[in-house]
Design goal:
2 copies of one chain form a homodimer.
Chain A: E1 2-7, H1 11-22, H2 24-31, E2 35-41, E3 55-56, H3 59-63, E4 68-73, H4 80-90, E5 94-97, H5 100-116, E6 121-122, H6 134-140, E7 146-152, H7 155-167, H8 171-180, H9 189-192, H10 195-209, E8 219-220, H11 228-236, E9 239-249, E10 255-265, E11 277-284, E12 288-295, H12 299-315, E13 340-345, H13 349-356, E14 359-363, E15 366-369, H14 374-384, E16 386-392
Parallel strand pairs in A: 1-2, 1-4, 2-3, 4-5, 5-6, 8-10, 10-16
Antiparallel strand pairs in A: 7-9, 7-11, 9-10, 11-12, 13-15, 13-16, 14-15
Chain lengths: 393, 393
């Protein structure tokens, strides 16, 4: 029997307890032993909970109990979660988490401790919720040089953008709707400003190229200033506006990562990923393009990924998974990457061609340029008096 | 250094050699040791090949060389490949394959030998080519009760159906085009009659529910009798005709698997999987729907999956992957599964409602019925004088 502890009994923690209970038999059959939730750590009281007998408030109980093999960290944030994760690893316990903030900011250090203590630190649920994507990336695609990763990494903003295009409503109204449905938080900043997606693209980048890319080092642009007009023009011309996290390896061996809204052609499978769903495209030099699609959040989907990691940690209790990354990524700013741009304003196609060299008209006063850096695009937008500019995938 | 042998130097075998060469450094960095192709077994001569010094014709060289840790079987078929795989496993070597016919028909027996000899028999490339799908299924989703799997498992037929809907050409013409492009073989039977997809849905089913489902035990219907008229009517009504492999767990604990063309609503992500691409949807009781998308065939994509398995086999050289399935699946015939049907003929909507109880008109003389078994649908089609009938997902 593998005994585990859950730290943080919020949405994810409760989901993990529920999956462990509901799928107890099938998990035991696949793993060859039972997974038993011995403790649930939370500062709050849960009187009447079916887990009341296992609720504890003191982390040291977990830390000092040699029976606890795997600790699920679903506290969130990078303060208490960091302290407890560090201590759990140092106590020789495997740690599994859904905490993208912690992995993105302290993953390197925590994986280093895990290596020293010969335990696993696994975090499949930190990107794409329940969608299997990190393990496929570092394991199934291990024979590839990864060239690029891009995707819809945040369900809240994808819901908002989907409602804008399908419902013809503004960002502000779509956000209110998302909040009413529980898809967006009261303070939606981390979602709508691209911070959540930024943490996830950092983790994908860390795993793909083995060099740490910190959220602080990349540019993140959200969707709060997206105009419905541009969403509509794009849609009529066969594009969808999507908030993408992107990371790529450049020909000079350097790399880049950023988050920004993009126009995506509907011929690209990512464009048809709607509502709260996530879709992540990975391009390898052997496999070509592969995409992973599903629910990027929610209690049970996230718990599915956590439980997959718990099972994996137990299966690798003797010989840990060789995971980790080092410092020293050679980052190129997103502003220096040449790409096509969407510009809208009170200008003619001829004007646009004069200023940008190359331009394709979506409708009067709305064009897609040839490849330009952000600096060049901003200069062109200035000359043309453009009121909107967006990247094109 | 991990020394491997490749058996069969066709498309896949040559792809594996190419990926091992091209991505040598990155593979060594990830694995912590080099992967070296020591032998390539083929009955043919490859004079002037850069691998000429490693080409052999006698399997016993591989069998008797203790240095060879992993054998890649890319021979195909279930005769020589079966013999060599069995002998390689008995000789204590890990075997990695892309051979869906062999895994679908003899996987249970070969995994049993692998277990006895404590070696790995891995076959990610046998389903979905380069797309990571089997490992995500048995590992990342191990915390789920799998409820259903369906998908486009054959690129050749998907190319043909895509050309029919996009090019407005008949099955026969689209097949000729696919053959000219090298997507379809001279004898396209295994692809167009659903046999290839059938083998793959059996493997998915074996892994999902742990019980052997043999290709001989399931019904397989291909696309050779699909009329362009029906493809067009479906397209105009918001559906795509797709050849799906489907497998599901029923409420009574029994299971079903089959291959047949279906109408798929374009609101389903599987409907937009076009050309030679594959898309596989897996529904788990925790994760909900997740989809895996990419190139389901081709030398390098398939080699990507094979190389991922080679790396995994080496990482698990001491403690093998716990994979396998037993006999005794309780199968329900696809004919007994209630589902909606598309019927076309010279009948009115009222006729259809009288006969089927429930019917939705796509256009005059073309309806989608309520849920019925195949027997019921055939009876209804007979009464209505329908000339076409297709399942609806």
């Amino acid at each position: 029997m593998a005994k585990i502890a859950i730290m943080g009994f919020g949405t994810v923690g409760a989901g993990v307890a529920e999956v462990a209970r509901r799928n107890q038999e099938i998990i035991a059959r696949r793993l060859g032993e039972e997974v038993y939730v011995k403790y649930i750590l939370d500062v709050r009281d849960f009187a009447g909970s079916p887990y009341a007998d296992r609720m504890i408030k003191d982390f040291s109980v977990i830390e000092n109990d040699p029976e606890v093999e795997v600790v699920v960290e679903s506290i969130g944030g990078a303060k208490v979660a960091l302290d407890f994760t560090r201590r759990a690893l140092l106590a020789g316990k495997h740690v599994v988490t859904s905490n993208k903030e912690l992995v993105a900011t302290h993953g390197r250090e925590l994986l280093e401790i895990a290596r020293e203590k010969n335990v696993n630190y696994l975090f499949e649920a930190s990107v794409g919720g329940g969608i299997p994507v990190l393990r496929p990336l570092f394991q199934c695609l291990a024979g590839n040089e990864i060239e690029e990763i891009y995707g819809i990494l945040n369900g809240t903003t994808n819901y908002i953008l989907t409602r804008m295009v399908q419902g013809g409503i503004s960002f502000a109204d779509a956000l209110k709707e998302a909040q009413a449905k529980g898809y967006a938080e009261k303070d939606p900043t981390a979602d709508v400003e691209g911070i959540d997606a930024g943490r996830k693209i950092c983790i994908l980048s860390d795993l793909a190229w083995g060099k740490e890319v910190s959220p602080a080092d990349i540019s993140m642009e959200g969707i709060s200033s997206i105009h419905l007009t541009d969403v509509d023009i794009a849609a009529a011309a066969g594009y969808r506006v999507k908030l993408l996290g992107r990371a790529m390896r450049l020909e000079n061996g350097k790399q880049a990562a950023y988050v920004a809204p993009h126009l995506v052609s509907i011929s690209c499978p990512i464009a048809t990923v709607d509502d709260v769903f996530n879709g992540i495209m990975i391009r390898g030099n052997a496999v070509g393009d592969v995409m992973f699609y599903g629910r990027g959040a929610g209690d049970l989907p996230t718990a599915s990924a956590v439980m997959g990691d718990v099972i994996d940690a137990v299966q690798h209790r003797e010989k840990r998974r060789n995971l980790g990354w080092s410092q020293g990524a050679a980052l190129v700013s997103a502003a220096e990457l040449p790409m096509k741009w969407y510009l809208r304003g009170n200008f003619s196609l001829d004007d646009a061609r004069t200023v940008c060299g190359q331009a394709e008209e979506l409708r009067t006063g709305a064009v897609i340029t040839g490849a330009m850096t952000e600096t060049q695009a901003k200069a062109a937008a200035g000359k043309l008096g453009a009121v909107s500019m967006l990247r094109v995938l």
